[in-house]
C-alpha cells in the first residue's frame, strides 16, 4: 500500500512539473519574434478542432435518426400490400 501511495504522489509531482514547464515554454514562445502569431494560430486550431468535434457528434445523431426513419419506412412499405390486379373488364355486349 505504501508503494502505491508513493507512486501516486510521484506521478502527481511529475505531472505538476510537466505542467509548469509547459507554462514556462508557452511564455517563452510568446516572447519570441512571431511567437504570439504562432500561439494565436495554435489557439485558433484548437477552437476549430473543438467545433469539428461538436459537428461530428451532431452527425452521429443525424445518422441514428436516418436509420430509425429508414426502418419505419421499410415497415410501412411491408404493411402496404399492393392491390390485387383486377381482371380486365369485358366490354358490354350490344344487346
What fraction strand?
Answer: under 5%
The number of distinct helices, counting runs of at least 4 residues, comes to 2
Largest sheet: none
Low-confidence stretches: none
How helical, in percent, are the residues? over 70%
Total number of distinct structural domains: 1
Whole-number average pLDDT?
A: 80
- What is the 3D shape? elongated
How does the SSE layout of this entry go?
Blueprint: H1 2-31, H2 35-79
Helix pairs in contact: 1-2
Describe the structure.
- Residues 81-95 have a biased composition (Low complexity).
- Residues 76-95 are annotated as: Disordered.
- With 95 residues, the protein is mainly alpha-helical.
- It has one domain.
- It is built from two helices and no strands.
- It has helices at 2-31, 35-79.
- The radius of gyration is 34 Å and the shape is elongated.
Quick overview of this protein structure:
The chain is mainly α. The protein contains two helices and no strands. It starts with a helix and ends in a 16-residue tail after the last helix.
What key phrases describe this protein's structure?
95 residues; mainly alpha; 2 helices
Amino acid at each position: 500500500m505504501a508503494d502505491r501511495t508513493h507512486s501516486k504522489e510521484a506521478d502527481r509531482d511529475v505531472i505538476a512539473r510537466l505542467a509548469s514547464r509547459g507554462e514556462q515554454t508557452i511564455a517563452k514562445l510568446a516572447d519570441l519574434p512571431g511567437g504570439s502569431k504562432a500561439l494565436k494560430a495554435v489557439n485558433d486550431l484548437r477552437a476549430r478542432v473543438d467545433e469539428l468535434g461538436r459537428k461530428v457528434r451532431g452527425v452521429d445523431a443525424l445518422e441514428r435518426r436516418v436509420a430509425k426513419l429508414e426502418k419505419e419506412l421499410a415497415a410501412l412499405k411491408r404493411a402496404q400490400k399492393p392491390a390485387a390486379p383486377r381482371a380486365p373488364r369485358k366490354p358490354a355486349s350490344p344487346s
